[in-house]
Each structure stands twice: as C-alpha cells, then as structure tokens.
C-alpha cells in the first residue's frame, strides 16, 4: 500500500468502527453507557484526531481513556484484602447512584486490549518505545476475545470478551494503527522480527497460563459452592430429622396422661415443640370427625381455624386424614398451599392417652418458608440466594435477588412424602469476592514482561546494529589511516631516496652527514662513472639506467660491509660516506668498489669496460663543514679524471 493511501484507509476504518458502535447502541444490542463501547469510541476519536494532525488532542484523549481503563484493570488485579469488592461497588454507586463495579469497567480482555491500543496511540510510531509490540499484543488479546466469543464458558465469573460491536470496532482500530507498519523498510522489518518473536512467545505463554489458571479457579469455586450447598442441605436434613423425632416424642408423651387433654394441657405440651421448631405454623389436635379441637400457638390466624372440619376445607387431604384418624397410621401430605397462604406440609400422627383410648391425630403444620428461614445464620443473605423447589416450582426463597443461575447447585432433601431440592445461587458480588486474582495478575504481568522483553531485545539489537555500523566505520577509517600512513611513508621515502636506484638521495646524505657532525674521522668519496654519457647517447637511456642500478647495487653492498652509506648524488655521480674511517681505510674501500665495478663487466657500445673515478676527502678534526668537505672530494674527483680516470685520488681537508 502506497503511503498516500494509508491515511484515507485509516480514516475509513475508524469511520466504519464508529458506525458499527452507533448502530449497536441505537439498536439496543449494546447499552449506550457500556464501558467497553465508551472506551472504544474515545480511542477511535483520538485516532481520528491523530490523522487530522492534532497529536496533542489525540494523546490527551488517549491519556484520559487510559486513566479510566487503568482504574478498571486495578479492580481486576488488586487482592480482595487490599480493596474489597464491596468498596468498588460503593465507589461506583457514589459516582452514579444505582450503578455497580460491573457498570464501570469493560471485560478483562477488552480492558487489556484497549489499554494496549491506547498505549500504541501515545507512543505514536516510535519503535524504540515498543509501538509495534503493543499492537502485536493487542492483536493477540483481540484474537483471544474472538475465541472466547466462539466457545463461551458460562461458568466463568468475570466477563472476559467484549460484545460483538465493540470487539469489531477494536479490530478496525487495531488495523488503523497497524497500517503504517506495512510501509516499513525491509531493513527495519528485519530489525523488528527478532525481538518480536520471543516477546510474542512469552505473551502467548502468559495467556495460555492465565486461561489454565482461570479454568482451575473455576473448578475450585465450583467445588467450594457445591460443598457449601451440601452443608446447607445436610443442616436442613438434620433439622427435618430432629423435628420428626420431636413430633414422635410429643405424641408418645400423651400416653403418660390418663385423661384427654383440655386446651390448657394441650398448649402446655405443645409449647416446647413450638418454641424449639419455630417453623411449625401450628400444632393442632384433630378429632376423629376431622374437626380441629385445639391449636397452639393461639394466634389470630390459628384462632380462626378452631372447630373447622378439615375434610370440608381440605378435601384433597381426606385420604391422609383417614389414614391417620381411621387406620391410625402416620401420614404426611405433599407440599400443599396452607390455610395461612404459604406452602407447607402437614404431618398427621395418631394420638392415644394412657388407657389406650384414641383421642384423634396430632396435626403439625410445617411452613417451608419458615423452615428455610432457619438457614439465615449460616449464610449472608446479601451474597447467597436459597430456593426450596419441587420440580420447577419455587416453594420458599431466602437471600439475594441476583443469584447467578450458571453457578446454581442443587441437593435433595427428604421432607414429607417426596424429596425436595435445595438450590443455592451465589450473587455476582459473592463470586467476585471469592474469585482469586491470580489468573488476571498472571496475564497482566506476562504482557508487561513481554513488552519489557521487546524493549530490551530491540534496544540490544539496535545497539548491535549501531555497533556494527560504528565498527565498520572505524574499520574504514583505520584502512584509510593506514593507507594515508603508507602513502606518507612512501612520500617520505621518495623524498629521501632515489626513485631509480632506490639508494639514499642527496637529502638523506646531507641528513646523515649532519647526524655525524661529531664523528671523527669521517671519510667522503665522490664517485663518477667514466664516459657515462656515451652509454645514454649510443645505447639509450634504458641501458644507462641498468648501469646506474648495477652501480647502486655494488656500491650499497660495499658500503654495508664497510659500515657506511652509499647514495646517489645526481646523474652518474654517487657518494660513499664512511664514518670512523680514515683516508687509508677509505682508499681500500674505494679500490674495492672500483674493482667490483670492473668485475661486473659492464661495457660501452664499443666493448670497453665501464669504469669509475673516485675522489676521496677526509675530515679528521675540527668542526664539520659539509660544503668544504664535499668541495674537497669533488676536487679529488677532478684530479682522478684528469689523471686518466678509473682510479682513486684522495685530497685531505686542510684544517
């Protein structure tokens, strides 16, 4: 994609995202005050401000949005003993009456995804601040939400994934942020890949570990609430067993009395049972003709049923009444609507006095609502909802109104003729309080470590590239320096040596002479090839150069043996400098050089041998004067030429 198309494409994506959120809000599929929708809308507006070249406004919107999202993330991460869920709910209600924590924070993964997108907006396109890594992490969390949307886990306590509309808008915003990465140069993309891969691997491992811990926490909570339900059921079953035993003791107690009871005696005997088991609406004596003779306690409602014939008022219970009053067997009704307007069970127990006379049936009316109210002590009514059911019909309810049906647990209780079901449903607040923060902390910490790992690896990689470039620059500089040094040495060498013969030239000779200004004796010999011009004229300059080179080789060999210096003075003239050498020794060395040249058999065009004339001068005492010394050697050379050439002539320097 060309750079010119990036901005229009990003604007189009943001526009589509805003359109999707607007349609979802107006259609009612997402509430307009949904925190995920509001945060996504804010970040989309911030992105549009960025595209409009208003970076300060864009960063301001992103900063405010991130502040709210960070507070929501803190509610997922802070332990319950640091910041109880009740305090979060109280803070939400203080901001807007009637709201709770759930109304103020997006789902966990949506919160993380939005924080990452907001961070990418704050960092802009600065790779050194981890903008590409933030976008990759946002993509990972967005895909995780997509997976949760496909396979929902209804038992999860926390909301993890955003609704479809905000989730779609997040995807569009993510693509709008990622578009500039398409135009990165290949070198920069290669620089990003190495830090990204291990960092994304760490983030993926953190996400997988978080999901595993969440499932483990889900099972732990399931076991916790299942055991809680079973404990309540066991307590209720124990209560039922206790009141059945107490009822039988009550009936057996009449066998110790010899006369039928009057109202006062009946109240006296029934009072302990009514006091110990307060869920008995009344304890009545039913005569064989089904008429209610006595009732306790004597409340206004119970006083109204005295003398009433049950066979007429409750015809559905005639069979059980007959079983107790005629067949003299214990009987219990199914769950039935009581005369008091609630559900309950009636127990009929045949009752006899001491002489064996049958006086009727003791009827004990049990209120299911009052029975389940005995569980108020072991539960928090604000956090747990209890329901006593028969099939799908709720018979008695206790506790919170917002019980979570996905976390309902059921246990059977034998009451009356048929078993009933005790269902417990924890409230959302109870679930949030009991839920461990470890899965969310693991995910947030893993994402943070992955981001830091990217920053470290990218900085290391960037420094490595800079180091390599610097090393290459230093290597080039070193090579250039070495080349310049070699060139300088070559220039210096050429300035002090003869290019043809490679011998020291006049400059080096003068420097050497000055260096030996204190050396005594000092012998200087000026050597000149005889008739050398003829060679150049008749045989050519190449032949002349060859003769000069040969002369240089012979002279250098002789000079090195004598511990001196052999230099080319100019043209066919050479100088042999011998420190610590007197005239006698100098003549020996000069003769050696002359003989070596003759032995080399260098010839003129006519076949005659090439010879050399040598003028020798010695400086034995006094300050060194180079010009007079060289003048003396030159004069000796002229005398050698005048005397017939091919000879050595010495001329001592006068004091």
Quick overview:
With 655 residues, this protein is α+β, with helices and mostly antiparallel strands.
Helix content: 55-70%
Q: What value does the Rg take, in angstroms?
A: 58 Å
Residue fraction in strands:
5-15%
Distance between the termini: 95 Å
DSSP summary, beta strand count:
15
Structural class: alpha+beta
- Shape label: rod-shaped
Describe the main β-sheet briefly. Answer: 6 strands, antiparallel
Q: What's the rounded overall pLDDT mean?
A: 88
Low-pLDDT residue intervals, each spanning 5 or more residues: 149-153
Task: Name the features.
655 residues; 5-stranded mixed beta sheet; alpha+beta; 6-stranded antiparallel beta sheet; 20 helices
Describe the structure.
The protein has helices spanning 3-27, 35-51, 55-77, 85-95, 108-123, 131-150, 164-182, 186-253, 263-276, 300-303, 310-313, 318-325, 368-373, 428-434, 438-496, 506-515, 532-539, 541-562, 583-599, 626-642, and strands at 280-286, 292-296, 331-332, 336-337, 343-352, 358-367, 384-390, 393-399, 409-415, 418-426, 522-529, 565-570, 573-579, 612-619, 648-650. The chain is built from 20 helices and 15 strands. The model is unreliable at 149-153 (pLDDT under 50). The strands form 3 sheets. Strands 1, 2, 3, 4, 5 and 6 form a 6-stranded antiparallel beta sheet that branches. It is of the alpha+beta class. α6 (131-150) packs across α8 (186-253). β7 (384-390) and β8 form a beta hairpin.
Topology at a glance:
Layout (H helix, E strand, L loop, with lengths): L2 H25 L7 H17 L3 H23 L7 H11 L12 H16 L7 H20 L13 H19 L3 H68 L9 H14 L3 E7 L5 E5 L3 H4 L6 H4 L4 H8 L5 E2 L3 E2 L5 E10 L5 E10 H6 L10 E7 L2 E7 L9 E7 L2 E9 L1 H7 L3 H59 L9 H10 L6 E8 L2 H8 L1 H22 L2 E6 L2 E7 L3 H17 L12 E8 L6 H17 L5 E3 L5
Parallel strand pairs: 14-15
Antiparallel strand pairs: 1-2, 1-6, 3-5, 4-5, 5-6, 7-8, 7-10, 9-10, 11-13, 11-14, 12-13
């Amino acid at each position: 994609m060309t750079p010119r198309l990036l901005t229009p494409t990003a604007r189009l994506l943001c526009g589509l995202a805003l359109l999707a959120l607007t349609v979802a809000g107006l259609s009612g599929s997402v509430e307009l005050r949904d925190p995920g929708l509001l945060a996504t809308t804010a970040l989309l507006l911030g992105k549009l401000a960025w595209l409009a070249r208003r970076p300060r406004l864009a960063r301001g919107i992103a900063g405010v949005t991130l502040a709210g999202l960070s507070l929501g993330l803190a509610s997922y991460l802070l332990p319950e003993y640091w910041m109880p869920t009740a305090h979060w709910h109280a803070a939400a209600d203080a901001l807007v009456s009637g709201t709770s924590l759930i109304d103020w924070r997006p789902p966990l993964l949506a919160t993380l995804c939005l924080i990452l997108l907001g961070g990418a907006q704050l960092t802009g396109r600065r790779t050194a601040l981890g903008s590409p890594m933030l976008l990759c992490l946002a993509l990972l969390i967005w895909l995780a939400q997509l997976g949760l949307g496909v396979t929902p886990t209804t038992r999860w306590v926390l909301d993890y994934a955003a609704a479809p509309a905000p989730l779609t808008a997040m995807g569009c915003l993510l693509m709008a942020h990622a578009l500039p990465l398409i135009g990165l140069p290949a070198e920069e993309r290669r620089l990003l890949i190495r830090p990204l891969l291990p960092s994304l691997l760490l983030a993926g491992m953190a996400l997988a570990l978080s999901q595993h811990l969440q499932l483990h926490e889900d099972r732990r909570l399931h076991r916790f609430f299942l055991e809680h339900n079973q404990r309540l059921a066991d307590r209720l079953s124990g209560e039922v067993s206790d009141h059945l035993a107490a009822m039988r003791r009550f009936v057996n107690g009449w066998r110790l009395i010899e006369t039928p009871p009057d109202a006062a005696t009946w109240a006296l005997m029934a009072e302990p049972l009514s006091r110990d088991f307060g869920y008995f609406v009344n304890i009545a004596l039913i005569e064989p003709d089904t008429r209610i003779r006595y009732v306790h306690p004597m409340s206004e409602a119970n006083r109204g049923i005295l003398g009433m014939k049950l066979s007429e008022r409750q015809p559905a219970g005639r069979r059980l009444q007959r079983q107790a009053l005629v067949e003299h067997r214990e009987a219990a009704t199914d769950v039935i609507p009581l005369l008091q307007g609630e559900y309950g069970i009636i127990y009929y127990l045949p009752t006899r006095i001491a002489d064996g006379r049958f006086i009727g049936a003791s009827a004990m009316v049990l209120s299911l609502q009052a029975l389940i109210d005995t569980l108020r002590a072991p539960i928090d009514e604000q956090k747990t909802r209890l329901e006593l059911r028969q099939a799908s019909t709720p018979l008695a309810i206790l506790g919170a109104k917002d019980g979570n049906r996905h976390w309902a647990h059921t246990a059977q209780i034998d009451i009356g003729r048929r078993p009933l079901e005790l269902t417990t449903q924890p409230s959302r607040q109870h679930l949030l309080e009991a839920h461990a923060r470890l899965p969310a902390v693991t995910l947030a910490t893993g994402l943070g470590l992955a981001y830091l790992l990217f920053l470290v690896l990218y900085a290391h990689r960037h420094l490595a590239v800079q180091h390599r470039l610097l090393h290459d620059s230093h290597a080039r500089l070193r090579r250039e320096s070495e080349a310049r040094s070699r060139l300088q040495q070559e220039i210096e060498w050429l300035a002090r040596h003869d290019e043809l013969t490679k011998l020291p030239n006049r400059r080096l000779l003068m420097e050497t002479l000055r260096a030996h200004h204190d050396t005594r004796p000092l012998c200087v010999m000026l050597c000149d090839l005889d008739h050398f011009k003829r060679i150049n004229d008749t045989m050519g300059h190449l032949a002349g150069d060859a003769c000069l080179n040969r002369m240089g080789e012979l002279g250098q060999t002789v000079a090195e043996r004598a511990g001196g210096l052999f230099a080319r003075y100019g043209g066919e003239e050479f100088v042999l400098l011998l420190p610590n050498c007197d005239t006698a020794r100098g003549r020996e060395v000069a003769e050696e050089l002359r003989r070596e040249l003759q032995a080399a058999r260098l010839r003129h065009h006519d076949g005659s041998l090439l010879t050399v004339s040598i003028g020798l001068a010695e400086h034995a005492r006094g300050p060194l004067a180079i010009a007079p010394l060289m003048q003396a050697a030159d004069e000796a050379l002229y005398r050698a030429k005048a005397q017939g050439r091919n000879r050595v002539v010495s001329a001592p320097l006068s004091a």
